[in-house]
Design a protein that fits this description.
With about 750 residues, the protein is α+β, with helices and mostly antiparallel strands. The strands form 6 sheets. It has a 6-stranded antiparallel beta sheet with strand order 4-3-8-7-6-5, sandwiched between helices. Strands 21-20-19-24-23-22 form a 6-stranded antiparallel beta sheet. The radius of gyration is 50 Å and the shape is elongated.
Length: about 750
Amino acid sequence: MDVNREELTKIKEVLKANPRGMNVLEISKAIKMHRQSVAKYLEMLAISGNVDVKTFGPAKVYYISQRVPVSSMLSLSSDLIVILNSDRKIINVNDRFLEFINAKREDVINKDFNTISPALDFEPSIMPNIADALGGKESSIEAYFKHKGNERFFSVKFIPMVFEEGQQGATILLEDVTKEKLIDLTIRESEEKLRSIIEQSSDGIMITDEKGIIIDYNRSQEALTGIAADQALGKFAWDILFPILPEDSRDDKTYKRFQATCKDILKGMRPADRYQEFEIRRPDGTIHVIQVSVTPIKSEKGFMAVASFRDVSSHKAMEGALLESEEKLNIIMEKLHAGVVIYQGESIVDVSQAVEWMTGYKRDDLAKMKFWDIVAPEFREIVRQRGLARQKGEQPPTSYECRLISRNGEPRWMELNAGYITYKGEPAGLITFFDISERKKMEENLKESETLFKYTQHIAGIGSWKWDLVSDRISVSDEVYNIMGIPMVSPSVSLDQFLSFVHPDEQATVLKKFYEALHVKGKFSGEIRIIRGDGAERTVRVEEEVTRDDSGNPLTMYGIMQDITEDRRMSQEWSQLIDRLKDTNEELSMIMYVSESVLNAQSLEETLLSILQRLTQAMGADAGAILLKENDRINVKASIGFNESAIAKLSVPAGRGFSGTVTASGEPLYVEDLQTDPRVISPVLKEMGFKTALGAPIKDRMEIIGVLHMEWKEIHPYKKVDMDVMNIVADRCSAAVINAMLYRKNKKLQLQSQYKTTKGF
């Protein structure tokens, strides 16, 4: 339908002249226009707001609109308003919008909306919604505006409209909600921060509403009580906490009193409870001492409650242990076989009883001396310097050997282990020492025996070797190099290097016999032709024997070699030598068998067990074990508190599990909870219900040779004095092991050397 503006004007004029209203027929007669055309124009005027219509039964009566002009309405609104026609050209705007874009009305009227830059800076873009409004679809969005540093949030409405001429248009209403949005974002950020603080708190946190129903319950509270959040949320606080009180505290009277206390807090009738302590029994059966602080928070409906929970079980245990520590230290200082000296500055402040009988000085005499006065003159200055430096926080060597001079002037060798402690609130030095005089004598004897053994080998012309099949290296004696006619380059060679001296015609046969001895026969005896370094061909006799592990796998091949070239030319002497060698083998086997029996009577296990019994009693431990390193495993040598089945399971590969970790690191190790610590791979410790373990390495100088560890069935808090004691005892174990090893080795070498010398080798 074409719009005739003159006809529209006539309809509005006639309605103005008849304020009481007119129907279509009356208007048609008054302006002499077909009533269908009048009806169409009236519908258009009603849509555009120029005409109002009222219905009386089937009849409609039209009135000229009494509304406030659009321009006036636009000025009254606090929103930003833009009216667009179907071509997106701006028909009208209010003053608020002009202020927002910093423009004059004549600069924007009849301009394309796309050319107004702020329209393009909304996120998300408002252009798709404008297109929908021009198509007759109303919508609204929330958009973020940023332009030249101006940041705002708007709630935008897009309203379709029709102009008087019937053209489609759209009104855009932009409500500035920046203030509300920023407040909302601030509130959300605060809530997120609060939520993060609650979740990251190491204390358990529980929040209830005004009725006592739990509305927040963090992860630390789950770990502390053993009750999951989904089991606690939505339930009354007293119904969650009361069941984990100890059984002897749970009865109807206590429950009602506990419930009443919680309700009084929620009513604001009780002040905040600060650091109340009580015991709980977790679902896993463990008992913990909990420290609780409850704070009521005023709300619109009453009082909410915020409760923080902290597990102070370890602190309580430490307080009790602290009271016992001095008593235990005194017991250990008196009973320990190692000498222990505590000094501050230059003065000795305490000593163990062992120091008295080692030095011959009484405790009162030692208290008047400087800690280096009992050291031999040649070691005195270094002991003084290191002892003073240690108290200043420096780190001089902690383990070394020196000589002490006893009261009667007798020098005695000692192995010192020094450390830094706090004694009665002041820095102090701690020295433990072991009498190694006997070991020193045995080492000297061993050196003499080894020298004698090498000399005997040289005189007899017998070399020896050891083939370690794990490393595939062959350790050879000096005499092997003499027989080969080459200078000694290295104490060990590879199999290929060893075979390179065998005559080329016999290399394949010798290699075959070696492997037959390893995998089938276990022994090899025969003659081999070799080519010396000077090119001379010689004949040697070789004797070999293989040792195996429990599974029958070969571990080591031991062998001896003797140059018999000259003896071959002397048949009579050769025959006598053969007889002597046979006698030698029989007598040697007999002597070695007797020697081993005598040496085994020196029971290292009994010594270690005695040490272990005293240590577990002094430390109040439930179990303990001493393990020694053997090849690639750590095996039990003495134990207390473990049955036979458990002892068999305690041995672990070197470098794994609790004991393996100590041997690998060479450092003491404290594990508070064996049930959860991943370093404990042995199931026997968990199965026997042990909680805490403390381990110390057993060292021979810098080499780790074993592990000493204690176990407790309850959580045993870490105490430095326990670790110091463990290190002292571990050193004693080391001394016992080394002394036993040296004794056996020295005895064996003496017997071997004596026998070979007697037989003329």
